Automatic annotation (TrEMBL):
NCBIfam families named in the record: nagB
Top EC class, one word: hydrolase
Name of the molecule in the record: Glucosamine-6-phosphate deaminase
Record-level GO cellular component terms: cytoplasm
GO biological process terms, semicolon-separated: carbohydrate metabolic process; glucosamine catabolic process; N-acetylglucosamine catabolic process; N-acetylneuraminate catabolic process
Pathway entry: Amino-sugar metabolism; N-acetylneuraminate degradation; D-fructose 6-phosphate from N-acetylneuraminate: step 5/5
A GO MF term: glucosamine-6-phosphate deaminase activity
Chloroplast found in the keyword field: no
Catalytic reaction list: alpha-D-glucosamine 6-phosphate + H2O = beta-D-fructose 6-phosphate + NH4(+)
Amino acid sequence: MKIIKVADSTEMSKTAGEMIAEKVRANPEIVLGLATGGTPVGTYQYLIEDHRKKGTSYSRVSSVNLDEYIGLPKTDPNSYYSFMKTNLFDHLDINPEQTFIPDGSAADLEEECANYERKIAALGGVDLQLLGIGRNGHIAFNEPGTPFESRTHVISLAEDTIKDNARFFSSPEEVPTKAITMGIATILESKEIILLATGKSKAEALYSLVKGEVTEDFPASILQRHGNVTIIADEDALSLI
Ligand SMILES: N[C@@H]1[C@@H](O)[C@H](O)[C@@H](COP(=O)(O)O)O[C@@H]1O
């Protein structure tokens, strides 16, 4: 794993944004795997600014998102569908029909999971996957205990995750308890992965990710077995390494 240590979240966003924009310019038909959460927001702002100033085009880019809450309509501001529109898609020239997010309102969720896998395969797989990390080691919404061979599936969110994500909602009771998430095997098939983290609250998670045992109890540890992972994190997040 390659580790890029930066001073703070501004520098992280610029470093990651530059890397992604460069890859989009080099391969205008790239398939991007995108993440939500607080961490990638600055990177998305960088991509928007770069699109405006340098004209990097997303007109032939496709994207697949990692996950979506179950039980929130798409129009809910906390759905990941709304998050992606507000924080990225509405500000780029990307074709909305080429942006894919699991449908957490699908009548048949199992079918939706299978469809999502088929979509990713039809796109030829993910070229570059952006990831954050949960304090408990989750990647996407793959909570501790999720099998490494899992593919897109429905998951019950861990208590810790509900608590951590409650800051985006008016109360913890409003946080959905279930989600659709790409599986760990799905994520590991991405050709390249960039993982972002900032702040002391992620320091233990980064330690386990880089130095810990590879175990399903800490899903992100499997990234040690992927051949092309770059971690971009600030000094606080890397303070235990
Ligand atoms: N499902 C998302 C993850 O994809 C994200 O990486 C993680 C960290 O979020 P944050 O960046 O807000 O710390 O939690 C969320 O629950």
